[in-house]
Amino acid sequence: MIITLRNKLKYPIFTMKKIPAITYITYILIITGSLFIHGCVDNDFDMPEPKEIAVGEVHTISDIRQMFSENDQQPIRFTEDASIYGVITMDGTSGNIYRSAYLQGSEAAINLRIMSPGGLYQGDSIRINLKGTTLSAYEQMLQLDSVHTGNNVVKLATQIEKQPIETDIITLLTDNSYQAKLVKLDNVEFSAQDLGKTFADAENLETVNRFLRDCNGNEIIVRTSGYSNFADSLLPAGNGSIVAVMAQFRSEKQLYIRSIDEVMMQNDRCAEQNNTDIISIAEIRQGFLEGWQQIPAGKIIEGTIISDIENENTAGRNAFIQDDSGYGIALRFAETHSLQMNNKVQISAGTIELSLFNRLLQVNNIPTGNAEVIETNTPLSPVQATIDEIVSNMERFESTLVSIKDVTLSGSNTFAGSVTITDPTGSIEMFTRNDASFANDPLPEGMVNLTGIVSIFNDPNFILRNSDDIEQQ
After folding, report:
1. pLDDT at residue 17 greater than cutoff 80
2. Total structural domains within the chain
3. For the chain, give me the number of helices (H) and strands (E)?
């Protein structure tokens, strides 16, 4: 019937044609049915019950940090219901951290690694069910990993303001109890060598370390992500206060800023350091013999770099410095430095570790921002000595620039690796890194004069700086 009707139509169905009564009846039934169905729909939806997240045994953040220590700092996987409480002090809103947040309780704090970004915000007072999470350390930063905001987190309140702990740089560098806590530092400023720079590299989205210092020369890293919403902001040039979260990467303590509004530096900068802050390398070496494990707070080393980073016979994080007292010492930086041979530098060394590496005394783990070049092209004249004099007086010659006359070389065809150098008074090993620019040069025949750095690797050895240190007779 319908097919027959449609075949008789001369115009489309929407034209003004008389339609048989049967079609009207069909339309009325359809409309009536639709109204009936619509009338049966209940617009008063029942909301699902919130998911019950068990409490289990309650711990403090201090408790779980202690658990980790007692477990020999091995990861702990929580398989039973247990809870901790705290307030979120930093979230990922600014872009400075990602899939991460910091939780602080009454006595301790911890980094949270979240399974997906968002869901936890600064000021949230929360309970975390630990079941399914893992307590572990990433490069010495304790973290609670695999936190699922839907399965593990109960929000108790929002917009809770946690007050930062007022402290100072030395305390942060030496007291590990501040890890993950919200802190405030007063009377601080960014290092002079960082001024005019931005917090991070926003163009290339690269994270950058800048250096914050106090008026005694103590410095700490401020680390900023290239994704942060203040990455392209210029560092403030003045002195003032900063609020940040204390983090750690290996032995380096680092600050993460939550908001550019919490960097308030509008006061005059610290007065220039005076000579009373400078400590001689002779004093440092003597202090180590008397039991020093670090350089006194606020002290500065001033001297000339005698190693040559460009010719790569010292590793990129290492250098040797010698001062006007005639003594030298090895420097070990936290990252690859850019200090050139013959640069005169000042190094903020207060509270930096003094330690032995294979019997070589070194100032260890210096932030690169602690070194400031104050003069270029200030070469030191080497002290002339025999091998016997060097070996017999290592406490005097260690890490200094020395010239040895009438030397023969043996033990290899090239400089790379260990070579024995001999003068009329004795012998000593000379070591050359494979990366050195002259490593594959052939050993000269006959006698030569050598200039280089006296070092120790368990036993005394000698280090050339570059090929110019070799004088053929």
Report:
1. no
2. 4
3. 7, 30
